[in-house]
Give the backbone structure.
Amino acid sequence: MRVAANLLLRHARELLTCAGRLPPSAARADFDPAPLGLIEDGAVAIADDRIVAVGRTAEVERAVSLTAGATVIDVGDAMLTPGLVDAHTHALFVGHRAGEFSLRVQGAGYAEIAARGGGIAASVKALRAASDEALGTTLARRLDAMTRFGTTTVEVKSGYALETGHELRSLRVVRSMGERVVPTFLGLHAVPPELRGTDDGRARYLATVAGRMLDAVVRGGDARFIDAYIDGPGFSVAECAPTLERARALGLRARLHVGQFEDVGGAELAAALGAASADHLEHVGDAGLRAMAAAGVTAVLLPGAAFSLGQAMPDARRMRALGVTVVLATDDNPGTSHCDALPWMAAFGVRQMGLSTVEAWFAITAAAAECLDLPDRGRLVPGGRADVAVLDLPSWEALPYVLGSPRALATVSGGVLREWA
Ligand code: NIG
Ligand code: FE
């Protein structure tokens, strides 16, 4: 029996399924492309929002019957890959902070800029002043820009609101983008500007997030995860633990900002909470990484932020050697990583963090989807969600070789095709 399909992408010189398992780190094994599931003259057939067949074009054509009016695309020299998955962004922001970047280039520190009223507080002011419509339009435009690089799933955090009503509004706007986004509640991003400067204001904000704000977020039902900025310039473990423990009891799993500037124990907290991920990790030592490995917490690394801040890149090779799964994401935000281009992060991963190109592919596809609890994405397999990228790359090895970011010539997101000239 042939299975019906209404969309067929075929004759790709190279198709990459990412359907294999990446072996534990062991020198040469990391360079073996077998887990990528490469197929020459590849094709993928889709029925509505599901993949129904993947393989060599001749096989797929034998296995499916195209419905009347089905769309058929000859991919040719481009690559067919899983739609890319960006597992850490703050893409819900308005305005820019280019002036801050200039100050940083001249030597000002991130914490110093924040203390002068720049940083997160500046973006909070801008977001609170924006209408729902303006927020939605801005986010939709940014998601579109990401799609041009093949990204079909994007985690998006709140955290530029820092007030219950505006945090709820942020999550609602993110959620309104549909299945392509994964909304995360980041109330513990910073102390809101109006409560800064006194211990009392800080304590009051922490109590609000742990109580009223968290309750409202859970009731609203728009958030899939909870995040907290556990760092020197952020919050301590003791400050974050009550909110995160309550959130876990209420069904919100954690993905945490940890150790971007200082190791204050966030990796150990992530492990104790059974968090989905601990992200950044520029300054986290072996003890924290070992705790993450033992608890199965994924490391989400953000080379755009390290690059923009002029920091040394985190050592992904070391993390893999200790048994930690590694994911790469853009961290798209107006302060530390104004970046829509997820494939470019893979180049940093390979050239500056010690990943193999095989590992880098997994870090922006299957491993990223898994740490977002989306097991039906990030791979091209029958039954999976129809998220596909047609990338302008000559072969899988070219991912870190082509500088800048390869463009998508087309994407399929939940079965919906978009093509660009
Ligand atoms: O992931 N450091 C905390 N959060 C962001 C930066 C946010 C901002 O500066 O607006 C980050 O780098
Ligand atoms: Fe971030």
Observations:
- The CA atoms of residues 45 and 53 lie 5 Å apart.
- The chain is about 35% helix and 25% strand.
- The mean pLDDT is 96.
- Residues 90, 119-120, 123, 229, 257, 260, 305, 331, 333-336 surround N-(iminomethyl)-L-glutamic acid (ligand 1) (CB under 6 Å).
